[in-house]
Amino acid sequence: MTNSLVPPAGPQRVLALAQLSNSVGDGAYYVTAALYFTHVVGLDPARVGLGLTVGWAVGSVVGVPLGRLADRRGARGTAVLLALATGLAVASFLVVRDFAPFVLAACAYASAQSGLAAARQALLAGLVSAGERTGLLAHLQATLNAGLAVGAGLGGLALHAGTRAAYLGVFAVDAVSFVVCAGLLLRLPSVAPRVPVEKLHGSGVLRDRPYAVITLLNTVLLLRMPLLSLGIPLWIAERTAAPTWLVSALFVLNTGAVMVFQVRMARGVTGLASATRAVRRSGWVMLAACAVFALSAGASPWVAGGALVVGAVLQVVAEMGQSAGSWQLSFDLAPAERVGEYQGFFGTGVTVARTLGPLVLTTLLVEWGTPGWLLLGGATLVASYAMGPATRRAAGRASEPAAGRAVLVA
């Protein structure tokens, strides 16, 4: 694996550029969407939240058949069409004025995004050897964070301007970013369909219980996702004496660490055994992070701030280890001819974590305090250890061979 933060030339670099293009647009969208829909469109905040929740719920369901479509019709063509569909869905937000059209646009956006993620994973699997996938995914994660940071800066300019034109400009940039993404994906070699016609009517991922268990455990581990955007900001404001500006500093720390160290953290993850070890280690580190975060309650501002910084460092180390391990497992345990379908299913864990995470974290951290932190860390540790037996069971399925399943899991 290269030591550079830039992936090798060829398909890997093109995939990274495609990731960068749409992540810049997404970063701008994420920081402005809520205020645009409420202040510019005039929707009630509760209805905005409901519409986005419905959209992502639909998207999580649609991701599996769209991933199957990538397997059946070809990953590159499917990814290009879904990138264009995502750009069109973003553009439709520009003309939304009422709740019902907003929900339809949100469903279209989330569905296209979920399908695009699955199709791109299938495309990656077809163009990159199994031994290089986790390393490339680490590069893509670092690229994603860089793009989101740049996009967030652009969105910040729109928020500062506060005008309708500025908000519309952000959505236009996001829409164009997906068109650019589609153009970059067209530069990649085509990947032939991988599902024989006689296999298309099989039970697929929805009947694959061992893989479903892996996905469920990974969903538990992904409950850390809303920590920086919701859990820690609320914790700082409600339970500590630390200054609120620390929220921004911790976000920058997390984003910068992933950009610089994610590739290095993923370097030792090359198979099922190393992947489960990485996930198990991340469980212990996450437990330590939760315990340190809990120490910030009731302390002086300086002590609380120090504890929060240490906890954030531990949390991002756990995040990078868990990400590298889960990427490897999600590919190695999927049948080679159904990568898109399986990646679409595995990706539902992100949607579920984003949907349920705010409620879970608000209850655990804000209402329960220190016991809630310890419960979150304990649940993460249990799920990380359960990943080993679950992986052994999934790897032992003789009837559905997949790359890497013959590897013994520690």
Q: Superfamily at the CATH H level of the largest domain?
A: MFS general substrate transporter like domains
- Can you name the CATH architecture of the largest domain? Up-down Bundle
- Compute the separation of the termini in Å: 23 Å
Described by strand count, sense and barrel closure, the largest sheet is: none
Helix content: over 70%
The total strand number stands at 0
| Helix/strand order, N-terminal first | HHHHHHHHHHHHHH
Q: What structural class do you assign from the helix and strand content? A: mainly alpha
> What's the shape?
globular
Number of helices: 14
What is the gyration radius calculated from CA atoms?
Answer: 21 Å
Transmembrane segments: 48-67, 79-96, 136-159, 165-189, 242-263, 284-304, 368-387
Pfam families: MFS_1 (PF07690)
Subcellular location: Cell membrane
Membrane topology: Multi-pass membrane protein
Describe this structure in words.
The chain is mainly alpha-helical and 410 residues long. The chain has two domains: 11-194, Up-down Bundle (Growth Hormone, Chain: A); 206-395, MFS general substrate transporter like domains (Growth Hormone, Chain: A). It is built from 14 helices and no strands. The chain has helices at 11-40, 45-73, 75-92, 99-127, 130-161, 164-186, 209-221, 227-239, 246-266, 272-295, 301-332, 339-346, 348-367, 370-395. α4 crosses α12 (339-346), α5 packs antiparallel against α9 (246-266) and α10 (272-295) runs antiparallel to α11 (301-332). It is globular, with a radius of gyration of 21 Å. The two termini are 23 Å apart. Residues 398-410 have low confidence and may be disordered.
